[in-house]
Specification:
The chain is about 40% helix and about 20% strand. By secondary structure, the protein is α/β, with parallel strands linked by helices. Bound molecules: phosphoenolpyruvate and magnesium ion (MG). The site of magnesium ion (MG) has 5 residues, from α18.
């Protein structure tokens, strides 16, 4: 790339809005940066006249992007257009997948003994003596230079990220890697690195990103380990509740090897990486003032009620022990019963299917007890570049091989979902524009290739083909005729395939009787249906619809009463604890939920 072409090429830019309630925080920023670094063009992000390099985590985090902020991403150089498209796409996906950490509601439990109040990191009960965190520094011989130690640490974090990629917390390793990489230019010696981390950490005190300090400490410790400075943590042999100011994210894995019953930390937040990993490990934990514990006595850590009972009475201990056993029983029940079918108390069988996006999520769904796939979101299958026909057939075949009952949705692009290889016109209101089934008109070649691949992969299976965003009977009939013509063109027998629609557009509610004559099934997409019923964009940063509104249930009732073909629900509502009893009462017999919600959804059904 010559100097002149970089210098004179026209920059391209776009505006991006932070929709996640968590803001644009370290983990998504690290993923964004790791993609940005693959491009040779200059990439900057700007907000309110401040412009930063978007290829470094620290500089990008320096914009302090919060929910609702609209910033400008600008790319300048040879591959600028590609970079802009792919980063816009990645950004949208990151925002969509960035689930906000739920604040766990505190239960109201009365104890007789003295107690200290706290905040819940990870719920559960622990009864044990407290143990104050201790560590020992050891110095070993190391022949590595600082630069080698630095590179080894980066490689180690990259390897940890790859190794844990299937795990939802893998992003923590990538975040630490990018954080360390961003310090490279200024750190030529260990002393430089220490000074730099000290300075950056001091700036974070009292800020929203304060929890990042433990990530800095963690990466510094990793580099130091390669230089021979190790920290050995000491733990008792018997069960204990660990008290510490804070723990480093890398120390949490170690806890699963010792007899830790619970953890109480003083200086962390429920959003920190340490907290995320504690929840992932299922260790009952609270944030509380650890300086209030002077003796190493037996205490009750009740991370349901968010208290530590420091002087438990006999009654308190009995009560906590009972709850602890109930929790254990519940955990075993939910996980061992996940492969059993779900029946209500009256003996009605309810099918619990999974919403999946690719082969890995199909495997997870199978392991979690799904009875089939209720929604294969094919637009997430090939996110980066246009797949060949063969690649599509291969992916569908693999996914179809895990289950007998499969519903595959044709590409649902547009609105909140973008694909880099499908160019859609810039629209004022993309949620009301070209999306879902409307792509049959605008991109017939892409739809033809997809349907052809699904037909080939389906072989003799009775796969269900579902069209998204349908708003009229004609639209469905035209798409079905299109599919039949493709089958004819390639001489594939599709007589076993079923064709149905997602109910997401309110007009369909008034057309059910007509649809009954043409479709084989319905699936209610409550995510979009709710957005269109209330005219509130599902990704809106400040407006929120009430997904439990009686209007939503009235609509489902109406569909259930009028439909003469099977109806399932595949929107988020299907996994909502409060909604499940009502949905079953309205006659819904199939729910399709994310893999992680399958066991719990089945358990909810058993209580109805
Ligand atoms: C829905 O709209 O409820 C749905 C399940 O589809 P998606 O969330 O993929 O738009
Ligand atoms: Mg939808």
């Amino acid at each position: 790339m010559g100097f002149f072409s970089t210098f004179f090429s026209k920059p391209v830019s776009t505006n991006l809005t932070v929709t996640s309630g968590n803001g644009f925080h370290l983990r998504p920023v690290a993923q964004f940066v790791s993609v940005a670094k693959k491009y040779s063009c200059e990439i900057t992000a700007s907000l309110n006249n401040k412009s930063v390099n978007a290829k470094g985590v620290n500089s990008l985090l320096g914009l302090s992007l919060e929910q609702g902020n609209r910033f400008t991403l600008t790319c300048k150089g040879k591959d600028a257009q590609d970079a802009l498209e792919s980063l816009t796409n990645i950004f949208d996906t990151l925002m969509q997948n960035d689930t906000e950490i739920e604040v766990i509601e505190k239960e109201d439990t009365h104890y007789e003994g003295d107690f200290i109040k706290g905040d819940i990191i990870s719920s559960g009960i622990a009864i044990a003596s407290v143990y104050h965190y201790k560590e020992e520094s050891i110095q070993k011989e190391s022949h590595l230079s600082f630069e080698e130690a630095f590179t080894n640490s980066l490689d180690e974090l990259e390897a940890l990220y790859t190794q844990h990629k299937e795990n939802k917390n893998a992003g923590i390793y990538l975040a630490q890697k990018e954080l360390l990489a961003s310090l490279k230019t200024e750190a030529l010696t260990l002393q430089d690195l220490e000074n730099q981390i000290e300075r950056l950490s001091a700036q974070l005190i009292g800020s929203k990103l304060e929890a990042k300090i433990s990530d800095y400490k963690d990466i510094l410790q990793r580099v130091k380990k390669h230089l021979g400075f190790e920290v050995k943590t000491l733990f008792p042999n018997e069960a204990f509740i660990l008290l510490a100011d804070d723990l480093l994210p890398s120390q949490i894995e170690r806890l699963s090897e010792v007899s830790v019953a619970g953890v109480i930390l003083k200086n962390t937040s429920i959003n920190s990486h340490t907290a995320i990993l504690l929840r992932g490990a299922g260790i009952s934990s609270l944030i509380a003032d650890t300086s209030l514990f002077d003796k190493d006595d037996k205490v009750i850590l009740d991370a349901h009620a968010a208290v530590v009972v420091t002087t438990p009475s006999q009654n308190d201990l009995k009560k906590a022990e009972k709850r602890l056993q109930e929790d254990k029983k519940q955990k075993v029940l939910v996980s061992t019963k996940r492969f059993n079918s779900a029946q209500t108390k009256k003996g009605e069988s309810i099918k619990v299917l999974a919403n999946v996006t690719d082969e890995n999520s199909a495997i997870t769904a199978k392991e979690e007890g799904a009875e089939g796939i209720g929604l294969l979101r094919t637009e997430f299958l090939f996110k980066e570049e246009k797949p060949s026909f063969e690649m599509q057939v291969d992916s569908y075949e693999k996914i179809f091989s895990y289950f007998g009952d499969i519903t595959v949705r044709t590409l649902d692009v547009g609105g909140d979902k973008a694909l880099p290889y499908i160019n859609l016109p810039k629209e004022e209101n993309p949620f009301l524009g070209i999306r879902g089934i409307r792509l049959f008109k605008t991109h017939p070649e892409i739809m033809e290739e997809q349907l052809h691949a699904i037909f080939v992969a389906a072989k003799n299976r009775s796969v269900k083909i579902m069209f998204p965003m349908v708003s009229s009977v004609e639209e469905f009939s035209e798409a079905k005729t299109f599919a039949q013509e493709i089958a004819k063109k390639y001489q594939i027998d599709i007589s076993k395939l079923l064709f149905g629609i997602m109910i997401e557009v309110p007009s369909v509610l008034f057309l059910i009787k007509s649809f009954n004559t043409v479709v084989d099934f319905y699936s209610i997409g409550t995510n979009d249906l709710t957005q269109y019923l209330f005219a509130i964009e599902r990704t809106h940063t400040t407006l929120k619809t009430d997904e439990l509104s009686p209007v939503v249930f009235d609509v489902i009732k109406m569909i259930s009463l009028q439909a003469t073909k099977p109806v399932s629900i595949c929107g988020e509502l299907a996994a909502n604890k409060k909604a499940i009893p009502k949905l079953l009462e309205l006659g819904i017999e199939t729910l399709s939920v994310s893999a992680k919600s399958i066991a719990q959804t089945k358990e909810e059904i058993r209580h109805v």
